[in-house]
């Protein structure tokens, strides 16, 4: 079944493939002309504590958040899990040590954090062989205010509003202290200044998803004159693939029968390869990979965010935040339960974080 939605210039076609009842997929296909010249009620329980210790306008928003930090405490509130499992392993702990800041890092007072499917898979123990030690504070995406800088930090200063994916490698030794806490320590190279026109909630939902969308399009060699089909175009990554393909990699028009690129963000690679042109590419973010499909794990890079900031600040690229959110800090488990239904539209955000 096809449903066509038409705007003044481009035509976008949404495709709803047959999928299992416990998942959701919304596909968008785009063709780009070449240039003339080339909820379950669960919460992190405050009654359960897991000991976790460590060893050794935008400006007004940042100023407001910064004034809340009179001094950096030694302990903070965080959502923590000490064993792998479902959302029930998430616990609330208000005695977590604030991470120490290395020379190339900044300490961020977290204002909002975005959830990603990788958070759930990591919590379930699917990457335990390369994971950081337990107990763990989860969370990859962050938006907040710099409150302390390491000696080697050159481009950021206290009071800066920033956003980023705090783990350079998503599956290889991700940080033990993630973004679902009052503070998190992050390498400067993984961060960018928050786009001036976005609030912290919007910014928190961007980093991992927009980096994944951008890197995937780059790896396929996508360019003007090529067509693309996006599976799960309503999701966090898919919604950004569509916008990046349109505004960063050129404008779109009609739907062809076969595609140069299929971006599978839902796990239907076996079907996706049937609609790709000979010599085309299929990006498979999840599920089994069928040739010529390929998978990659995104590398967090603040330079990518800096490259895309002008598109965000101009309004050409817009963050998509799930309308059920933001979820409060006490609703982290509920937010994860919702995300894991595969029915979220855009990003699931946690805000405020006390």
Structure description:
Residues 85-350 form the Enoyl reductase (ER) domain. This protein is of the alpha+beta class. Helices cover 20% and strands 24% of the residues. The radius of gyration is 20 Å and the shape is globular. The chain is built from eight helices and 15 strands. The chain has helices at 58-67, 117-123, 200-204, 207-220, 236-247, 269-272, 302-313, 332-339; strands at 2-6, 11-15, 27-31, 75-80, 91-97, 105-115, 141-149, 161-165, 183-187, 191-193, 227-231, 259-264, 276-284, 293-294, 348-350. The N and C termini lie far apart (46 Å). 50% of the residues are buried. Helix 4 packs across helix 5. The strands form three sheets. It has a seven-stranded mixed sheet with strand order 1-2-3-11-12-13-14, with helices on one face. Strands 6, 7, 8, 9, 10 and 15 form a six-stranded antiparallel sheet that branches. Strand 12 (259-264), helix 6 (269-272) and strand 13 (276-284) form a beta-alpha-beta unit. Residues 1-26, 35-42, 45-56 and 251-255 have low confidence and may be disordered.
């Amino acid at each position: 079944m096809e449903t066509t939605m038409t705007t003044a210039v481009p035509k976008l076609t949404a495709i709803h493939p047959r999928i299992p009842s416990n998942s959701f997929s919304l596909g968008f296909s785009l063709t780009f002309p070449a240039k003339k010249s080339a909820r379950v009620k669960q919460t992190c329980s405050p009654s359960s504590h897991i000991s976790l210790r460590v060893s050794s306008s935008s400006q007004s928003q940042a100023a407001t958040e910064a004034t809340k930090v009179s001094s950096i405490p030694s302990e903070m509130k965080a959502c923590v899990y000490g064993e792998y499992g479902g959302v029930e392993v998430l616990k609330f702990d208000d005695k977590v040590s604030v991470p120490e800041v290395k020379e190339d890092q900044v300490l961020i007072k977290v204002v909002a954090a975005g959830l990603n499917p990788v958070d759930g898979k990591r919590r379930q123990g699917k990457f335990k062989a390369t994971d950081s030690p337990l107990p763990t504070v989860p969370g990859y995406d962050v938006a907040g205010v710099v409150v302390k800088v390491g000696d080697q930090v050159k481009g950021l200063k206290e009071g800066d509003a920033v956003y980023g994916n705090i783990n350079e490698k998503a599956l290889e030794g991700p940080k033990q202290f993630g973004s679902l806490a009052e503070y998190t320590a992050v390498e400067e190279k993984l961060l960018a200044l928050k786009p001036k026109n976005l609030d912290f909630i919007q910014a928190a939902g961007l980093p991992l998803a927009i980096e994944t969308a951008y890197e995937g399009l780059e790896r396929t060699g996508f360019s003007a004159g090529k067509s693309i089909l996006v599976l799960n175009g309503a999701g966090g990554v898919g919604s950004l693939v569509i916008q990046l393909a349109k505004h960063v990699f050129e404008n779109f028009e009609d739907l062809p029968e076969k595609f140069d690129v299929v971006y599978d963000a839902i796990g239907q690679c076996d079907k996706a390869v049937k609609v790709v042109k000979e010599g085309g590419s299929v990006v498979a973010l999840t599920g089994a990979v069928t040739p010529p499909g390929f998978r990659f794990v995104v590398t967090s890079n603040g330079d990518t965010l800096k490259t895309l900031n002008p598109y965000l600040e101009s309004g050409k690229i817009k963050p998509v935040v799930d309308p059920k959110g933001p979820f409060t800090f006490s609703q982290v488990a509920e937010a994860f339960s919702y995300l894991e239904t595969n029915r979220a539209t855009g990003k699931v955000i946690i805000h405020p974080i006390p």
